[in-house]
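[step 3/7] inverse_fold.run input=structure_tokens len=752
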């Protein structure tokens, strides 16, 4: 998390940017009406139009001040329809300082305003890579810059952060057809909730229009709707319903308020959302088989992690810690762990023990029920989320809401914008981008021998010692060029990548959600720019040593072109190891075709990459397995016992987990902590190291559940499911077509 010094500096920078923007650009400041920008500016608030093109522009960039993609709405209006379609190009720049030329992020997009219309809208989706304080934009109609609807410089952004401490960012889609003039937002509310003790939970709720892309919801930590509104929302255009569903299965958290406690309502909710088959793990089955033990090294590490969490007084959330609801398969009440040996208020749920002493219920029934939906989850509340039953209000409130910390964006993604990750080094590309230490040692040794004794001896024998002034720099030049040439050849040419991804695939609906960490090394820059599908979110992962010692100076550019987002600059510089978190949720035709029944099933690989392992669970719950299936190949699966299938996947997954190279890892962060303990400047630098960890994000938690590393039953998938493993990308976009993958690990969990 940011240090207090960093927070004060950020607040001061924003205040200065706002002051400078208002003083230097009164025309634009006066155009801020109803909390959005209106240009051309009018002193009396009336609507005026550009003299060049007859257009009026309204910009609403209000959204959560945080991570995720920010949907910026632009609405062009004209008095009369144009006789021909007009091309409109928009270039929007964001800055954390507001200084001229300090463009932390530049987003460009083109659109065509049809003929015979008076209103035209565009939505620019801007990745939240830095904390912005200012925005500037240019608008070109045709090929001409229209200064009347462009900003003359940076102006303060319309963020909605309140600065009252950590917020739980909640978005609420509205079902109304009416619009409050323009803009995404109808209302904003900041609420302080106190349950039990003095600890307060701050929430920030925005009421917004239904979105058309899941990226528009990506900046929200929770989407909250009432059951009655959800019923109406499900009847809206499929594009809007799909956007909410794909955000959910990509890791979002949906709160359904005033749902009651009837199990039939829970099944109705999953039907309205279309997520009935999106529970990929935790089947609630009781199996008599014993889990094979973990390797001692992993067991020790897992126990150490648990101990550190318990010392931090935070509850450990296990995926399977629910009381299943028989009438609503997949739903359950979250269990509450109570230590009856602890006396007094030392037990956070002593009130539960006292009020329910004669009852076996130790869960959230009467408050909420939940179910998994891909990487995300749905919580159905009896009333409102913070209407906590009296028996759960006893003790410290942080224990009541502790399990909700994983709802936060940073916890779900394992990173914070502008902060470094101490785990950057555990997914490096093998033998790429490293300093040529061995070659340097050999060359410097030869250089010393040649330029010294050998050079002198040869010239002495020839009686030409005066040539030392010529041969010495020549040998030095050859040695330097040799070292540079070796480094270039050793890293090869083209683009190399290492990826670690998990894809959840529902073949019945043809939808998939993918999380992946991708390391890139661009040895030679290709002619074409890297690009990602428009349904993909990308977030930079900075090394902790860079975030701690180097002031962030991001200069990123994105251009939206049709169904692609082109990464123009700053994302993948040449000869530099970079890493990104990629999240994708979309419609797909990739699949495994399984034909047959019982123990005789033939599988055809249509996933687009060779498969190293396929583990299948058929309709009857029996297990089958195959290895080494070529792309577009087909094989007959072999029946195996569950333990054999589990061991096959578990061994492969554990052996391919991200790991630090020898001598690296958390030593960097520990060194910073030691230095920072006695130096104010280094303590300031440590503010660039975020508290979230990639090893605990949604992707890692799901993989831990599949392997059993989180304490649950491994390969706990429902019937008609499979797990496929590959070393080439299946659903993770890598930026270019021809990327050489090294030591990658891709897992697909599918249902058919």
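[step 3/7] decode complete -> sequence:
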């Amino acid at each position: 998390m940011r240090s207090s010094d960093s927070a004060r500096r950020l607040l001061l920078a924003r205040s200065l940017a706002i002051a400078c923007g208002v003083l230097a650009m009164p025309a634009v400041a006066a155009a801020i009406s109803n909390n959005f920008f209106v240009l051309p500016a009018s002193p009396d608030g009336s609507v005026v139009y550009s003299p060049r093109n007859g257009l009026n522009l309204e910009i609403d960039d209000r959204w959560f001040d945080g991570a995720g993609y920010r949907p910026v709405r632009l609405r062009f209006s004209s008095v009369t329809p144009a006789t021909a379609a007009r091309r409109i190009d928009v270039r929007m720049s964001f800055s954390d300082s507001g200084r001229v030329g300090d463009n932390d992020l530049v987003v460009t997009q083109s659109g065509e305003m049809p003929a015979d219309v008076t209103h035209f809208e565009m939505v620019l989706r801007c990745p939240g890579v830095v904390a912005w304080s200012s925005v500037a934009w240019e608008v070109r109609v045709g090929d001409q810059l229209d200064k009347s609807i462009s900003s003359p410089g940076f102006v303060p952004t319309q963020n909605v952060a309140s600065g009252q401490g950590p917020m739980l960012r909640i978005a609420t889609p509205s079902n109304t057809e009416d619009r409050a003039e323009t803009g995404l937002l109808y209302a904003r509310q900041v609420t302080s909730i106190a349950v039990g003790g003095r600890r307060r939970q701050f929430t920030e709720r925005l009421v917004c229009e239904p979105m058309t892309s899941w990226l528009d919801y990506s900046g929200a930590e929770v989407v909250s709707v009432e059951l009655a509104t959800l019923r109406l929302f499900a009847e809206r255009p499929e594009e809007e319903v799909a956007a909410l569903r794909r955000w959910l299965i990509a890791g979002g958290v949906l709160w359904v308020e005033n749902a009651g406690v009837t199990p039939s309502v829970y099944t109705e909710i999953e039907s309205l959302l279309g997520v009935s088959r999106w529970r990929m793990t935790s089947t609630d089955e009781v199996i008599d088989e014993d889990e094979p033990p973990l390797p001692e090294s992993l067991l020790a590490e897992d126990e150490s992690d648990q101990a550190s969490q318990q010392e931090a007084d935070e509850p450990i959330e296990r995926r399977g810690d629910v009381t299943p609801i028989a009438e609503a398969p997949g739903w359950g009440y979250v269990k509450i762990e109570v230590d009856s040996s602890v006396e007094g208020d030392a037990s956070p749920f002593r009130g539960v023990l006292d009020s329910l002493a004669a009852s076996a219920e130790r869960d959230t029934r009467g408050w909420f029920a939940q179910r998994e939906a891909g990487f995300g989850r749905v919580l159905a509340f009896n009333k409102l989320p913070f209407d906590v039953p009296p028996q759960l209000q006893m003790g410290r409130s942080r224990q009541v809401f502790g399990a909700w910390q994983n709802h936060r964006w940073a916890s779900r993604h394992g990173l914070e914008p502008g902060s470094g990750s101490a785990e950057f080094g555990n997914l490096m590309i093998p033998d790429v981008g490293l300093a040529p230490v061995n070659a340097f040692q050999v060359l410097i040794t030869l250089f010393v021998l040649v330029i010294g004794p050998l050079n002198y001896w040869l010239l002495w024998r020839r009686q030409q010692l005066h040539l030392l002034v010529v041969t010495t720099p020549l040998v030095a030049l050859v040695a330097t060029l040799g070292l540079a040439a070796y480094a270039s050849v050793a890293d090869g040419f083209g683009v190399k990548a290492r990826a670690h991804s998990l894809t959840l695939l529902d073949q019945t609906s043809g939808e998939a959600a993918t999380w992946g960490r991708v390391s890139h090394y661009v040895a030679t820059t290709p002619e074409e720019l890297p690009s990602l599908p428009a349904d993909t979110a990308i977030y930079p992962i900075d090394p902790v040593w860079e975030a701690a010692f180097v002031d962030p100076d991001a200069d990123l550019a994105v251009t939206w072109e049709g169904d692609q987002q082109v990464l123009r600059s700053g994302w993948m510089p040449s000869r530099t190891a970079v890493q990104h978190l990629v999240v994708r949720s979309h419609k797909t035709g990739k699949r495994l075709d399984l034909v047959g029944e019982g123990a005789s099933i033939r599988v055809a690989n249509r996933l687009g990459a060779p498969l190293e392992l396929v583990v299948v669970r058929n309709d009857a719950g029996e297990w089958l397995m195959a290895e080494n299936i070529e792309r577009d190949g087909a094989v007959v699966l072999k029946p195996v016992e569950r333990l054999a299938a589990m061991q096959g996947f578990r061994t492969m997954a554990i052996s391919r987990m991200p790991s630090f190279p020898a001598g690296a890892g958390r030593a960097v962060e520990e060194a910073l902590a030691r230095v920072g303990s006695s130096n104010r400047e280094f303590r300031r630098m440590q503010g660039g190291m975020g508290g979230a960890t990639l090893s605990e994000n949604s992707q890692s938690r799901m993989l831990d559940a599949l392997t059993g590393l989180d304490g649950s039953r491994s390969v706990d998938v429902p019937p008609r499911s499979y797990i496929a493993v590959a070393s080439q990308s299946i659903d993770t976009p890598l930026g270019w077509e021809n990327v050489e993958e090294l030591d990658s690990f891709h897992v697909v969990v599918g249902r058919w």
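[step 4/7] annotate
Residues 495-751 form one domain.
The first strand starts at residue 32 and ends at 33.
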